[in-house]
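Here is a typical sample entry:
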Amino acid sequence: MSAPGLDVPALGYGAANVGNLFRALSDDDAWAVLEAAWDSGIRYFDTAPHYGLGLSERRLGAFLQTKPRDEYVLSTKVGRLLRPNPDHDGGLDTANDFHVPDDLRREWDFSADGIRTSLEESRERLGIERIDLLYLHDPERHDLDLALAEALPALEQLRDGGEVAAVGIGSMVSDALAAAVRSADLDLVMVAGRYTLLEQPASAEVLPACRETGTGIVAASVFNSGLLASSEPRRDGRYEYGQLPDELWERLQRIGRVCAAHDVPLPAAAVQFPLRSDTVRSVVVGGSRPVQLRQNAEYAALDIPAALWEELAAEGLIPA
């Protein structure tokens, strides 16, 4: 099904950065980022307990409490519960790239009780009762079979009981996404980094599965770890968890040359590319500075000539 009661805006903000992803933000800095997103017209906000050990949810919730509830869509994630860390010695959660005290730890729980508890605890951290969309977060990192057998049916029960409007999973692994779409009645799946201007592995199985089942896609990580966030990418840019492979660097350069020839900023093409698919409902972008949020909104609204997409397809750089 396709979340008939939930209209997800085409551009969303992924709130990992306000959970101090990669660098610490003050409360005021985080508020300014969220305010820039709102002022730029963004009305879909995505978070997770994983982001900053709950800090992202607390900051986002405090901000959204100042806005009319019917004017935005809110999603968070389940699968990891936050519990006191008995080994905390004053350190930070930098092993997970979050600059927050590691006084809590993440505990996987895909049981029905665990999924419901996660939802209730997210509501408390957010200070917002109504969460529109609930994703199972990174199920393949724990136990995909258990996710399919227990966690996804628990999500369906929450939706069918009116606790949330829509459910799905969020993952950067195409096999896990396709398996979930084919085995459960999901509304939306968050495809992280697997359907971007640079690479589209999700087009092999995930997109066809979503078409067959009527499941919508929310495309995340569309800048591929920041590689597509600038019109002049750097060779030493981060690619997921390591170095950028040579073949992808060459592909990125070719894409950049086509964009430059059509006078289109590379990041604008990156933001808009996923929405060309009939299965993609929304693109979620991050950002840790207000100027980035304003720029992303401008990229999303930029008029891109059809000739750009035609040339990229003719060069074999995007699906025809």
User: Anything to note?
Assistant: The longest strand covers residues 73-78.
